[in-house]
Amino acid sequence: MVRLITHNLLACHAKNCTSNNFPLQFKDIEIELREAEFNPDFIRGFLPKLEWKALIDAAKQLGDTSLPSEQPEMIDDEFLKNLHHVLLEIHIEEGAMICPNCQHVYPISNGIPNMLLAEHEIG
Amino acid sequence: MANKYLFLFAQTHEEFRLPEVQSVAELNGFKIDFLSPISELDVSRPFMIFGLENEDHARILARRCILIKSVCEFYARGKTYEELHNANRLNVPKWEKYIEDTSFKFEVSAYNHSIPQKRQREVVENFSYMALLGKIDMKNPEEIFVCVEEYVDKHGMTRHKHEGDGDCREIFFGRLIEEGSARQLVKKFDVKKRSYYGNTSMEAEISLLMANQTLAAPGKLVCDPFVGTGSMAYTTAHFGAWFFGSDIDGRQMRGKDNTPGILRAAEQYDVSKRIIDLMTFDVTRNPWRCGELFDAIITDPPYGVRAGAKRLGRKKPLKSSGSEPPHPDTPRPDDQPYIPPTKPYELSALARDLVLLARYILKPGGRLVFFLPTVTDEYEEVDIQTMLCDGMEVIANSLQDFGSWGRRLITIRKNTSERYPPPSFDAHGGSQPVDDPSVTHVPAHKDFRTKYFQGFRKELE
Fold first, then answer.
1. What is the pLDDT of residue B438?
2. Cβ contacts (< 8 Å) between B285 and chain A: which residues?
3. Mean pLDDT of the B334-345 span
4. C-alpha radius of gyration, chain B, whole number
5. Taking CA atoms, what residue in A is nearest to B341?
6. C-alpha torsion sign, points B370, B372, B373, B375
7. Which end of chain B is more exposed for a tag (fewer CB within 10 A), N or C?
């Protein structure tokens, strides 16, 4: 759980934290690899939604360098499989995600991130 | 011309039948000809005749619709056997190909009634004019001809021993194409046999019907922002969709073990791989980076009877304006982890917010499928309109009736590709013009919890 597809969609949402609030930075994390079913159409369809640089940086931090630093124009099967692995098969089970701007700590325990805001962080 | 097919539905959830067949047809890219305006169809009867382009479409429906018991090629109907046989004789071209050399059997049954064996034989014998020459094979026939008599529901009254068969309402005749095979999923997802569930878990049959309303299929992305114990996660994932769940209170998702309860149950159904993530957050303060992410939202918002909906904030504002709210980093005397305060989330506000959120977070054409509890005596159709906004359209509204109250499964489609900003979840009614009916009309589901615990009595003068 907390797969990189999810990480790529989460931004800090504390009050007034509207810039430099993405991507959240991993800290003290434990990861697990688990196989997921490959659906090339889904991966291809999801490409336009991804923030590529954030994904590459996160993958690198977790030790996966299978993806090119720029989103390629030609999409082949090998690329889709690598992307599938990065998006869906790496699970962050423990640790935290920290907002690069306001430093809010979103803890992850047993694979579930706590994205709740504190009272002073809501409008 | 489209062929006519006879549908036999399960004797339950009447109002859910048409939306379900429509959804499954849309998912598979074909159309159903309802043969008369939908508003004129009598959904209270378990037999319906629809036009379909071909038999394959009938099979697709029978394999995916939870409420279909079987589908037949339709040959004839009649108020009496005489009428039925006359109509059937006119349809010779439909069944003459089975005369020469097809093994067959007849199945004679009745709805709300049981026919004595002796008369069943008589009924079969009266079809002798069809002159079927093939072998009669009771075990593995190539074709099964189905004759069903429909009787009016006596609501539990027993008939006299010697009453005979009484008057049947109508008789239907056709050739069996496929028995519904999706109904057995109701057993598979039985909550009692689930390794993890709670007191607010949704019953299996409804969770399956909801999943069908979302058009769940491989590669689709579906989320539930009030996921609770995950009842709808299992069924949507079963149909192949990827699933995200979130809740303001993580305890229900987790349960007591280290492995979250939802994942344990998902494992049991072999769908844990499709549960992408579970997260703790308040849907009105959600961390989604952008909109147009999901193909569907499926949810049963808590409406206050077993559990009430909550959102972040304080029920009563802190008294003195000078005092700051407690900061998560300041040590607490009891050494407990910081838990932000929450306040109740009134149902009609929640419903409107959910539609606004859906418009932002759904892809164009995406669906919002959720339950809304309503007070039977007070419900008006305009109640649903009060929660709509531009670009969102109600496509199905099915009542599950509990007597003085009920809950409606609402399916709303995003019919715009315009991009909207994320909703603020704060301005309720303030920015809308006063003559807007959605401001002046108070829907019957407002303050549902209070009404429920008052036993739905009118307020005393």
1. 52
2. 13, 116-117, 122
3. 81
4. 26
5. A119
6. negative
7. C
* B280 vs A22, A42, A112: nearest CB: A112
* Inter-chain touch A39–B218, beta carbons under 8 Å: yes
Nearest CA-CA partner of B162 in B116, B109, B110, B108: B116
pLDDT at position B434, please? 43
| Complex-level ipTM | 0.96
pLDDT higher than threshold 90 for residue B398: yes
CA distance A52 to B381: 46
Sign of CA pseudo-dihedral A1, B238, B12, B56: positive
Distance from CA of A3 to the nearest CA of B (A): 7
8 Å CB contact between B368 and B358: yes
Closest CA to A22 of A95, A87, A99: A99
Q: In the structure encoding, which two tokens stand for residue B202, read together?
A: 């949704």
Chain B: nearest CA to A42, how far in angstroms? Answer: 5
Please identify which residue in the block is written with the tokens 């099964």: B144
Report the CATH number of the A4-121 domain. 2.20.25.10
| Nearest-angstrom CA–CA distance, B280 and A113 | 6
- Residue recorded with tokens 């430099």: A20
- In chain A, the N- to C-terminal Cα span, in Å, equals 29
Q: Do the Cβ atoms of B364 and B292 come closer than 8 Å?
A: yes
DSSP B445: T
Q: Are the beta carbons of B288 and B279 closer than 8 angstroms? A: no
Radius of gyration of chain A (CA): 15
Q: Which range is least confidently modeled, B78-87, B261-270, B307-316?
A: B307-316
On the question of pLDDT at B431 being above 50, the answer is no
Q: Which of A12, A19, A114, A119 to mutate to test the interface with B (most CBs of B within 10 A)?
A: A119
Chain B residue with minimum CA distance to A115: B281
Provide the pLDDT for residue B432: 43
Confidence of residue B242 (pLDDT cuts 50, 70, 90): very high
To test the contact with chain B by mutation, choose from A17, A114, A122 the residue with the greatest count of B C-beta atoms within 10 A, namely: A122
Q: Which residue of B has its CA nearest to A113?
A: B279
CB B311 within 8 A of CB B282: yes
User: Cβ B327–A51 below 8 Å, yes or no?
Assistant: no
Contact state of B340 with A41 under an 8 Å Cβ cutoff: no
Give dist(CA B278, CA A6) in Å, integer.
10
Q: Where are the domains of chain A?
A: 4-121
Q: Which of B250, B260, B426 sits opposite A114 (nearest CB)?
A: B250
| Chain-chain contact of B312 with A120 (C-beta, under 8 angstroms) | no
DSSP B158: P
B60, amino acid identity: I
